[in-house]
Amino acid sequence: MNVGLRIDVDTWRGTRFGTPTLCDILARHGIRGTFYFSVGPDNMGRHLWRLLRPAFLWKMLRTRAGSLYGWDIILRGTFWPGPEIGRGLAPQIRAVADAGHEVGLHAWDHHKWQAAIDTMTAAQLHQEIKKGYNRLSDILGHPPATSAAPGWRCNEQTLLEKAEFNFTYNSDCRGRHIFMPVVNGVRLNQPQVPVTMPTYDETVGQNGFTNDNYNDYMLKQLRPEGLNVLTIHAEAEGNVCREMFEDYLKRAKAMGARFMPLEDLLKMLPEPPEDRIIMREIPGREGWVAWQDPVFSAA
Ligand SMILES: [Zn+2]
Questions:
Q1: C-alpha 152 to ligand 1 mean position (Å)
Q2: N or C: which end of the chain has fewer CB within 10 A?
Q3: pLDDT 10s digits, 198-214
């Protein structure tokens, strides 16, 4: 049973402390994954405050956001501009690539992308991708082969803009199988590797889910027959959830799971079918996220 492992790194703190912790855990288990880095300013504190309305306050309390993200993250970018992650932490990002993991682009400014994608023009979307693409290329010494839109906030214009860069594939949405995205009837040549499982922050703290039964639930999400793509966050599984995550790896491996970077999943499927993306709200997450269109794939 193959399981794509995707690690999103949203913040300075996640890059500085979460990624080395996760690299250690993955090395212990002989696992390679795909890390997606945010390389511009860390304004995630601003993001958290913007969402500080009752539903989100409740979520912060139930997921213990203070300990999950760190209060310095919650305040970062609120009263002063956030530091540029790629400028200050390039050695940490290179170390992940040197450890044998696949490294891709998550964002230039994660907060800005999540908050403003609905109103950004094509040129602005292009500019955001370009800034991150160029910075990550400088850090790695070569362009990244893959990207993943922050918070699964990806519209059709984003797909069109990404097609102008040299990405081999992208992971911008939730869904069930690898597909070639179609926009306005035109098939793009960058396949999508969708995420198939929910994330920690979408799950724990509601419907009876706690740290005690989270791994049981996540093990049940594994499907021997279908595509499995798991997203973890350097800020969560690389920090307060690290022991729980290592326990999950052990139990999943005992069930026959083989973890791998997303590029390896793609290599096993030479001709993905076509599909579209749609926008849909999901429980536990603010606003819409991109989904593989279930109607289109059924047609
Ligand atoms: Zn992210």
A1: 8
A2: C
A3: 999 888 888 889 899 99
